[in-house]
Specification:
alpha/beta; ten-stranded mixed sheet; six-stranded mixed sheet; 11 helices; binds flavin-adenine dinucleotide
């Protein structure tokens, strides 16, 4: 089958690999000059199938209100919100109710566990080296945080996820460089979680997909020349590396540019991250997909002995610190509203603060890469994988805070659905129909 994939983030690249493996003639279209240039570029890199949780969780609305005016806060709302963001917020509030949260979380855990299995299979087969490390330590600064994670620990017990509750001394044995001056009440250690450089993995997997025959067309932003046929793509090419975000075709235009070629495919798979909503809108589908922003710092190590061995999560600030080879990455912030190209100073400062609290000697403070990414988030936190309701168009979108942890599994089940094969896991909770969308 002749298949087009829109978007070469981690979700698009894994999809290309699995579809090419199944023998399809795959072409990936990406508006940037390389893979993983947007949300898959510099995120935390953590794969924590047990600890995975939707953003919509009981207690989150109160947390947001409590932290509204704090300087160092894990969640922010950038006012004013657009009409679409307000609708998203309303749907998100409903998904915060306990029964919805419980079922969404169990769907995510199921897919994440499967995805890790697929990831390990790929890594073993191709012997990838992508700065991976084992283990994930959740730091609890006070009794308040310890009590707050109790329901999560209960969930881990029920789902059979291996973890250990550690006192501060034992946590410092797992991560010996943790600063002794910062009060630590206790920690949760998840030895089977892991971290790795998602972008590096995407670059390696792209090469494997190419060996299987997949083509990558970079500097090409696609859209639909007609709202009637999703199999027909218009290819708007940029000069190499000259992408101007303002020039991106985000809306359906009834006046195709004269020079843009149009190509027909048997199947089109949409993996365009936050860009997916605008593309679908041009086909008459209103997907409630919001950009939920986050930030990261990436710095070279100053002294490896003073750096984390693997992944750390500061539960109070919801900031992660990850060892990625010779670098350390600090990531966090959950922000609805605001703009992709405007970094909020306070959010960046929180990352520096948490790094300083736990690993003050780890990083070189010159040439720190400060990054802002947009998580493609649906209100209930689960992605949509499979049918779009339109002939010839499949979706692999909305992986929110967990795209790296879910990508390999999502790609495999997508390929199985296209082949009309039974999927290895139950796909309940990943269908578009759960969102009860109105179409134009
Ligand atoms: C601060 C932060 C920390 C995070 N930490 C983690 C973590 O520890 N673990 C985890 O699992 N996840 C994490 N995430 C989430 C993860 O980054 C995302 O879920 C994931 O990167 C989404 O991948 P994607 O391929 O769907 O989107 P993207 O990586 O954004 O890829 C979409 C691609 O589509 C392209 N595109 C869009 N429109 C078009 C068009 N019209 N034509 C051509 N190309 C187009 C874009 O250019 C882009 O390259 C984090 C996110 C943030 C912001």
């Amino acid at each position: 089958m002749k298949v087009a994939i829109i978007g070469a983030g981690i979700v698009g690249v894994t999809s290309a690999y699995e579809l090419a493996r199944d023998g399809h003639a795959v072409t990936v279209f990406e508006r940037h000059s390389a893979v993983a240039e947007e949300c898959s570029f510099a995120h935390a890199g953590i794969i924590a199938p047990g600890y995975i949780t939707p953003l919509a969780a009981p207690g989150m609305p109160t947390k947001i209100l409590q932290h509204l005016f704090s300087h160092h806060t894990p969640v922010r709302i950038g006012l004013p919100l657009s009409g679409a963001e307000l609708t998203w917020l309303w749907q998100w509030l409903r998904a915060c109710k306990l029964p919805a949260y419980q079922s969404n979380r169990s769907h995510l855990v199921r897919l994440a566990a499967y995805s890790r299995e697929r990831l390990h299979g790929i890594v073993k087969q191709h012997e990838f080296d992508y700065e991976r490390s084992d283990g994930h330590l959740v730091l609890l600064r006070s009794d308040k945080e310890r009590k707050a994670v109790a329901p999560s620990l209960q969930f881990l017990r029920e789902t059979g996820v291996l973890f250990k509750e550690l006192d501060a001394a034992a946590a410092r044995v797992v991560e010996p460089a943790l600063c002794a001056d910062t009060p630590l009440q206790s920690a949760i250690h998840l030895p089977h979680d892991e971290a790795g450089n998602c972008r590096q993995f995407a670059l390696l997997l792209r090469a494997e997909a190419q060996k299987l025959g997949a083509k990558f067309e970079f500097d090409t932003a696609v859209d639909w020349p007609t709202a009637q046929n999703p199999r027909l793509l218009r290819l708007n090419r940029f000069a190499h590396g000259m992408l101007q975000p303002a020039a991106l075709p985000t809306q359906h235009s009834s006046t195709p540019s004269a020079s843009a070629p149009i190509e027909q495919f048997d199947t089109v798979v949409l993996c365009a991250g936050v860009g997916s909503a605008a593309l679908l809108q041009s086909l008459g589908v209103q997907l409630p997909l919001a950009a939920v922003y986050g930030y990261s710092l990436s710095a070279n190590l100053r002294e490896p002995m003073d750096a984390p061995r693997s992944a750390i999560m500061d539960e109070r600030y919801q900031v992660t610190i990850t060892r990625l080879g010779h670098r350390v990455r600090v990531a966090g912030g959950t922000e609805l509203g605001g703009r992709a190209n405007q970094k909020r100073k306070a959010s960046i400062q929180t990352l520096y603060k948490v790094l300083q609290d736990w690993f003050p000697g780890a990083a070189q403070h010159s040439n720190v890469q400060e990054w802002k990414g947009a998580r493609p988030a649906l209100p209930d936190g689960s992605p949509i994988i499979g049918e779009s309701g339109l002939p010839g168009l499949l979706l692999n979108v909305g992986h929110g805070s967990n795209g790296w942890a879910l990508a390999c599994g999502s790609a495999r089940v997508l390929a199985d659905s296209l082949a009309k094969r039974a999927t290895d896991i139950d796909m309940q909770g990943f269908d578009l129909s759960r969102l009860k969308l109105k179409t134009a």
